[in-house]
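Ticket closed. Logging final result for Concanavalin A-like lectin/glucanases superfamily protein.
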Amino acid sequence: MKQNIKWLFFAGMLALTVGACTKYADPPPVFEDLSTGDSTQGGGRKVLLIGIDGGVGPAFKAIKPPAITELLKHSKYSFDGISETATTDAATWKSMVTGVSYELHGIRDSSFIYTPPSGTDEHKNIKTYPSFLNYLLTSSKGLLNTVTVSSWKSWLGTLLADSKKQIQTADDKQVKDSAVAQLKNGDPDLMVLEFSGLNQAGKQGAFSASDPGYKDAVTKIDGYIGEIMAALKARPEYNKKEDWLVIVVSNHGGSGNKYGGPTEAERNMFALYYNEQLTGYEIQSSKRTGVLLKGTSGNGLVNASIPNDNGLYSFGDKQNFTFEMKVKIPTNQGYGYTRFAGTQAPNGAQTDRGWYIMMAQKKWRGAVGNPLNNGWKETEDSPLEIADNKWHTLTTVVKMVGDKRYMQTFTDGLSSAPMEITEQGNLNSTAPLRLGYMFSNGAVDIPIYFSEIKMYNEALTEAEIKAGLCIADMAQHPKKDNLIGYWPANDGVGAGAVFKNKAPLGYDFKIQGDYAWSWVDDSPCAPFVTGQQLAPLLLRTQDVAAQIFYWLRVPVKTEWSLEGKEWLSQFDREFIR
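Final structure:
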């Protein structure tokens, strides 16, 4: 049956910029014209998402609950996934259903309403992050039958308010009973369940397999999952016309009987992605720590600099040098021409000589200048876009060729054309070497993870750059003796506000602002998984939405700003029939 959905809302409603408002709910949906849709849009693909609050991966691994253990035989799963830096129930669930991290959505308490930090301009546009249900509702899959079941009122009414059918229960048993009833008598295309009993057991005892109360709660919820799966598999068209992806995921772990903080134990999460056709495979997480540099001047700025390098990084008018770093920048429509590494005057004025690296919307450029010698020049744009939520290696080489000097940039080893900078002369700057946002006209917030930052007092060749892209041990690098700074930038929580220099020469980067060490989703350049030829993975809370969109064949739009990574397609040879 075809239906027309013509509900339209003015764009101004999306902005939610009413004067003097200090709390921001998610916007109402804007509906596309679905006149070409019908009631069978799902194409047989359906999703069951089972969320277990406070489920600790190592505890599940130790207890081996039978229903979950049975699911593992046809699942891609991990016992050591990573949740948010803020491990409250609200923060982690918000990340799960929006596909963005706590650092972006900012939701921490169970109202699920964003409250800007003190001092924020209350008239400023606040970006909100709707749930995957909102995006589905306003896509070509808007007719899908969505069901949510929970005892948590605001989870139902605020976080997942776009569900077509909401069932509020008194406890976990009623969540299970309602889910079984829906599978037996209803026709859900996407059903989301929230179980809270295990979380309560952890708070009353400990989030550990050795705690009797916690172990009993794991067994009880596992029994509920067994009953739900039995009802699912009893559907007449199960594994025939209906192709189900079952996701069982926890939102956070715990330390002792506590959670909410950023420790590794609290951030632990368990996740499995089940389909009848999948082969069981445990994903051994590849993870590292990092600090998200972000913000703008006077608005949550977090950046890093070397306050005094004693002239080590002053390269004059003839010195060769190479500056290299790996960066991960969220997908965006563009970041303007914001500068994010190098040297320049603190106020952004081009009255001081130096060099820097800048965005060119989704690409990047190198720039060099001396106001006393023919001003500033910029290289051509990079051959690749780098604002795609993936790691990229950016290399900037300054070298003398005869009596002329050039700057050349490389993106993942791919070169741009060299630019002559002889007339710019001396590049020594009074400004320190910086990472992160630098002020300039039109500059915008650009959240960046940095890694494997290197400075050489020599110009690397193109062959040397390509050979070193994935080198694991810098002691084996052919230009190791030319390193005058090496900052892996994965020092971890105990390191404090610093990116420590690991080279024989060099100085530490000092981090300024309200920084936080967090687990980064994947290694900037890690080997493929032996025998699988798959990119290394770190399963995260914000990845859930991306897998749901992939499974339901919903194209992800750039403006959704998803940080979650879709990885299930790496296994599509197993389930595409």
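The chain is about 20% helix and 25% strand. No further action required.
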